[in-house]
Fold this protein.
Amino acid sequence: MSSQEFRLPDVGEGLTEAEIVAWLVQPGDTVAINDVLVEIETEKSLVELPSPFAGIVEAHLVPVGLTVAVGTPIIAIAVPDSDQAVTKPTATKAEPEADVEAAPSVLVGYGPSEGGSTRRPRKTAATSDAVADTAALNPWVLSTPPVRKLARDLEINLADVPPKNANGVITRDDVLAFEAHRTALPTAGKTSPASDNMSAGHTEMASPGETRFPIKGVRKATAEAMTESAFTAPHATEFLTIDTTRSMKLVHKLAQDPRFEGVRVTLLLLIAKAMLTAAKEFPEINASWDAPNDEIVQHHRVNLGIAAATPRGLLVPNIKAADRMTLQELSSALVDLIRVAREGKTTLPDMSRGTMTITNIGVFGIDAATPILNPGEAAILCVGASKRRPWEHKGKIALRWTMTLSLSFDHRLVDGELGSKFLARVGAILENPQWELLLG
């Protein structure tokens, strides 16, 4: 038997790091190739990683809750010599260990990062002798490259940061807690009784009236994407309040139609179909801005994003080639998309290559908003609450179902005329939906 280390793989979309959410195997367990070992959280989704080895689990090399860089060894598995997939030379103490892989282990559905990976050095210039001594006993005490960079940016010596985890790993949370404590001190670097508490392992340095949470995962990715979009794409937003009484009636009719047996028919489904129909009539709105090449890219298919509120934060997976789908197919795709998102199982491909998006704030009772574009998209349609209110109908005032739609668009790609015509067409379809249009 020989010990093999499984490194965190690049699961795509430029992943640089991920958080260990849950270990699904324990030391001593026997695993086969492609047995699921661990659940990780990337910036976009939860991902289960299968084993590239068959053998016996020796140890978890990274604890739950720690964010590590791609290429970091996360688990050790004892593999029969005849089943070895990787051979490694024995490293000397004089130099940092490096893994030389004769043939990189490849997971089903994943591949190793280009250029390979090397194990981080056990001691850096910013590491004290005391930490180096600890590292000799526990090679994981030196934390991870992203945390090292954070410490360098904050001018923090990792040797001064007390780890919260029992295994001595210094995490991003530990560094941020140390920085919060240091900033709160009257004189930077001056010790106080609070320092003794930190040395004892207490890292909650927030004031009594506040609670601090690390920015990571979906929340971090969403913040970065929205900031990029808001400050790179010139946004414009238009509003349109419409009478949706006929659409509401159509929802009930379709629910009773034999052709829609087993299909979940909702007003959101009709809105999505109306948006897709309008996009066929105004294809210029289904585009993106390619700044590096000074080009406008007009997409031939609509990958329709649906903003979904999940326990992990806001996700915007998209339905590929939604414009080619019938109403029944679109309904099934919507149901699956929302279910998978709420279960936290949305994949990275599901989150990529969207061309336009719908966000539904009406479910929260909100009438209208000015949504921020998904990066790389030209338009996002915001759906307000559906309400009964007095409305002029056939020359009389009557209670009608109404709704406000708001369309935000990238003014580099969409001028006022195009945005107005597109939004007006979506509204017209919903005010007077036609069977042949919606069933096509």
